[in-house]
Structures are given as structure tokens and as C-alpha cells.
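Data deposition worksheet. Section B asks for the primary sequence of the deposited chain exactly as it was used as input, without tags or linkers unless they were present during the calculation. Section C holds the resulting structure in C-alpha cell form. Section D is free text for depositor observations; keep each observation to a single sentence. Incomplete worksheets are returned to the depositor.
Section A, Depositor: J.P.
Section B:
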Amino acid sequence: MKNNNRISRINDEIMKELSQIIRSEVKDPRIGSMTTVIRVDTTTDLKYCKVFVSVLGKEEEKQSVMKGLKNASGFMRHLLAERINLRFTPELQFKLDESTEYAIHMNQLIEQVAKEREAREVNQNE
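Section C:
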């Protein structure tokens, strides 16, 4: 249990620092302001770190951002090593997380169904 708490704290710290680095220090024009770090999963041996990011935009913009993040991963790993005191700084692996866009889409569908139901009820009462 103690190990899980340690990894959880490391994940939180990496997520906080990576968010700051992406927002203010990475100068790659492909990485837009609509890039958000959603979740971080670090292996217990601290060798690898999966970074789940959400990118709002078209498919080609998403692919461009992912390429930019992959190219900047060494720079970001270097900055993480300076900011977080770990024996090993994990290798960053970026994964696209589309759960935010999926949630927005589902919310729109629910609103659309609610409006249609309301319109049917109004027509039945007339």
C-alpha cells in the first residue's frame, strides 16, 4: 500500500510539472494552448511514464500535437529531472486521450434528446 501512495504522489507531481512545462516552456508551434495533461501513469520501477493528453481540434491538429510532444519529450524529461528529485526520471510516452471530447459529444446528444422529448410533449398537449 505504501508503494501505491508513493507512485500516486509521483504521478501527481509529474502531472503538475508537465502541465506547467507544456503550458509555458515548450516553444514548439505544433503544441497549442488547447493541450491538457489528463492523467499520468508511472511504472513502479520509474522507467516509463505514460502521459495521457487531451487535444481539442481536428484530427490533423491532434496528430501534429502528438508529434510535437514526442519530439519535445527529451527536453521535458530534462526539465522534470531538474524539478523533481527522483533517482530515475522516467521516459515519457504520450498517449492521446479522447475521453473529454467523447464526454462533450455525449452531453450534446443528451441535450438533443431532451429537446426532442420536450417538443413531443408540447405537441401532444396541444
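Section D:
The chain is about 60% helix and 15% strand.
The longest strand covers residues 35-42.
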